[in-house]
Structure prediction request, 424 residues.
Amino acid sequence: MAIEIKAPVFPESVADGTVASWHKKPGEAVKRDELIVDIETDKVVLEVVAPEDGFISQVLKNEGDTVLSQETLAYFEAGASAAAAPVAAPVAAPAPAPATPAAALVAKPAAPAAAVVTAPVAASDDGHGPAVRKLIAEHNIDATRIVPTGKGGRLTKEDVEGYLRQPVAAPAPVAAAAPAPAAQAIAIAVGERAERRVPMTRLRAKVAERLLAAKQDTAMLTTFNEVNMKPVMTLRKQYVEKFEKVHGVKLGFMSFFVKAAVEALKRFPAVNASIDGNDVVYHGFYDIGVAVSSDRGLVVPVLRNTEQMSLAELEKGVAEYGKKARDGKLSIEDMTGGTFTISNGGVFGSLLSTPILNPPQTAILGMHKIQDRPMAVDGQVVILPMMYLALSYDHRLIDGKEAVSFLVAIKELVEDPARLLLQI
Prediction:
């Protein structure tokens, strides 16, 4: 019986998705829960897996095609022999079929931009499949030089990969090709100067859209200050081993800054607010987004109700999000919401930067590299580990005095960590 393989149910914040890659070909045997296709959204990639043992009988959506929530991607035959069944070629639009349950799915962060190098693949006269056209475009190969072994004289992925493994004495001339679609990945070689045109992933395109909107739609301004990190570093050095032994997590710097931000936000509610049309929404909770680096770029998972969390709970939350980002396990829910954001460019060596707002939030704190500098203390020059802090804010809601005072509050709390415990 034919089963419809459908796109996942997208959250309200996600309008549609793109077929990133098919992991199984029509007619290829598939085990239950085995990955068959990735659907990329502007936030995460959703994995669609096989509902039963069987095979894909027909693909309706090719790599690069846009799909809507619950739209049919392919037809699947359960419990049948793939070798004995006829295989239908991919088509541009779905044909009627019995309605059956959709395949299961698992969310993971989107792949890095370099991993998705093909754009919508339409039916073409060359007869090559999407995987073959992808390899040909990536490596700028003259397909006429490859001996096909597939049915009907078609090239297979293995044919192209075998050709690429062959030693080449000199660059082979590339035959003139017909103009490619504007959105398709194109590799252009001019002598030894090579170029490759790759379409943006949905994630990168969404990030670009949001950053541009933040610059255009907000009155963004940045104020700077510096903080002496010696008190926190001394405290951390004194208790780092005992802290890890008791709580099972290392004591870092982020938890101190989250705690300091929460206390400062309580004093300056506008910094924890958001603008909704002509209304100002003041949040009575403190959900702090913490920027985390992943293979696909910078993502901002959110720590919920941080005002109720201890230093250990904050460190565990940050560590867990870091691991999920590395393992590709962050979900849309992990990255949705947030009332204030902290970004630490110092881990990459940044000495000073201007962070960009994360709308509809009205402020973002930028941490930077800790660097020893000569400072004047009580008339004496002392070498101290200093960090520049940057607060970008929306001047439509937050006045300069309020922004400066908020940043000074964070500075004072970090320079005297006992105040965080005493909440003074």
